Amino acid sequence: MKQDFLKYQAQTSPHPLAMEVSHANGSYIYDTNNKAYLDFVAGVSATPLGHNHPKVINAIKEQLDKYMHVMVYGEYAQNAPVKLAKLLAKNLPFPLEKTYLTNSGTEAIEGALKLAKRATGRSEIISANNAYHGNTMGSMSVMGYEERKQAFRPLLPDVRFINFNNEDDLKLITTKTAGVILETIQGGAGFIQPENGYLEKVRKRCDAVGALLILDEIQPGIGRTGKLFGFENYNCIPDILVIGKGLGGGMPIGAFTASSQHMDLLQNNPKLGHITTFGGHPVIAASALATLKEITESNLMAEALEKEQLFRKLLVHPLITDIRGKGLMLALITPSADITNSVILQCHNEGLILFWLLFEPKAVRITPPLTISNDEIIKGCSIIIDVLDKIKK
Ligand SMILES: Cc1ncc(COP(=O)(O)O)c(C=O)c1O
């Protein structure tokens, strides 16, 4: 399988881990030799309820037995996507009430950028250095990492960059700005949280100049930071909220939510202002609805903060220079990229899945399923500490 994977399936890097996956359950993924790997990554923050959660599986199966794709997005009223959008609205503050469902995070970012332009009649977008918002052309245009986008220029014009957490840069947001797009917690950059009321200040500046604030919660959203959405921790409500990853409960999804007043603009002048064939797919929406219900009705969000404290207590070692992030969105920082690589690869051999972050080579990603147990956290952290001990010798 590995040879065919490398030969026939397009690759994203020269050295994929290429683990041959057999099955997955709860906090574990099993390879074809039936070796169990404890999952501290959750498909890169995309499986908040772990693998094959029975409520998610049942919801998918029930929907499969009724129907799959019947019509393009937005024409027919279908139970699962309607209930999903309604449940999101119920859990969001005013004026975030209307949701557009897409197939991926990057596609939701594209929709959000378009909506900001459509709503303001302006073209300038402001993003942050070291931001990651996805890999299609619009999303890549607002990616704050030149090295990875140079080869694909020209990209969107009229995009400017500010430094995250830098208040002086806020003056670059002006009456020319259609939208300011920020990750609530910068992911690829190394799980950088907003500091000193930064998001509140961005909100104020956007209000002053009439620009829309787009918060990308594709990674921090869906309970990972102890609240359903990260912005709830920072006293700042965006005009457009972008969601993805964990919302699908392991299925591909994206979504952007705004006020009805804004969202309704996509219906007219021009009509069909944003369209998709498969967005809001009933099987995916059924999976997302079951996931969102479980997360909002259980204690998982509050537990994420307790589990963070357990990680912070256990992950103490001379080669750990910092632990960044919030809740179950944690980045362990080592003194060098080489040490980080060794930790990730050696832990893999020991049956613990860890991963890299996009732009911070010293960071080890720890984003387990929210359902991970304390015993599993203790077990995984002891593997990390043992591996670090060996590296230190
Ligand atoms: C913050 C953020 N925005 C956007 C995306 C893009 O989402 P997708 O890979 O579903 O297109 C990601 C994916 O890693 C992300 O972390």
From TrEMBL:
<protein>
    <submittedName>
        <fullName>Aspartate aminotransferase family protein</fullName>
    </submittedName>
</protein>
<dbReference type="GO" id="GO:0008483">
    <property type="term" value="F:transaminase activity"/>
</dbReference>
<keyword id="KW-0808">Transferase</keyword>
<dbReference type="InterPro" id="IPR050103">
    <property type="entry name" value="Class-III_PLP-dep_AT"/>
</dbReference>
<dbReference type="InterPro" id="IPR015421">
    <property type="entry name" value="PyrdxlP-dep_Trfase_major"/>
</dbReference>
<keyword id="KW-0663">Pyridoxal phosphate</keyword>
<dbReference type="InterPro" id="IPR015422">
    <property type="entry name" value="PyrdxlP-dep_Trfase_small"/>
</dbReference>
<keyword id="KW-0032">Aminotransferase</keyword>
<dbReference type="InterPro" id="IPR005814">
    <property type="entry name" value="Aminotrans_3"/>
</dbReference>
<dbReference type="InterPro" id="IPR015424">
    <property type="entry name" value="PyrdxlP-dep_Trfase"/>
</dbReference>
<dbReference type="InterPro" id="IPR049704">
    <property type="entry name" value="Aminotrans_3_PPA_site"/>
</dbReference>
<dbReference type="Pfam" id="PF00202">
    <property type="entry name" value="Aminotran_3"/>
</dbReference>
<comment type="similarity">
    <text>Belongs to the class-III pyridoxal-phosphate-dependent aminotransferase family.</text>
</comment>
